Sequence to fold (164 residues):
Amino acid sequence: MPEQLLARVETCYRQAEAFFGKRFLRPVVSLKLRGQKAGVAYLDENRLRFNTQLYLENKEHFLHQTVAHEVAHLVAHQLFGPRIRPHGKEWQQIMRGVFDLTPARCHQYQVARRKSRRYIYRCECPDRDFAFSARRHALVAKGHRYRCKQCNAPLVHNGQQRFE
Fold:
């Protein structure tokens, strides 16, 4: 676990404690988040997950903004309870008042899309193929049938795959 990230989480909690005059339970923190999200706060579990790749690619902004954003969710939950809106006025007040940050809902980090496997299906039309996702390919294996809208022939897997 990167020490800077844990130190920033602790700093955010100390700021909140100084501001509210109240002690907050520290969360479990992990860097096991993948995909589009930079961070996620699990309110009922008092847990934070951060995206390692986005952290490494956007370290300074991530530490400053994203960590505070997620900590603010847990602090708001502990202060105001489970019925508040995720990016509602309570969360926004913590972002502005405690952390002196703009309460931005979403990050603007560049996220590389991972390549996905496509299964190639053919019909009777010349030079025409259809790239099925893994989910649709699995449906075919379970008996689902698809037809070409032009020639009305059934689409058949030709045994090939490609990555897009």
About this structure: The helical segments are 3-20, 52-57, 59-80, 89-98, 134-141. Residues 117-163 form one domain. Residues 43 and 82 are 8 Å apart (CA to CA).
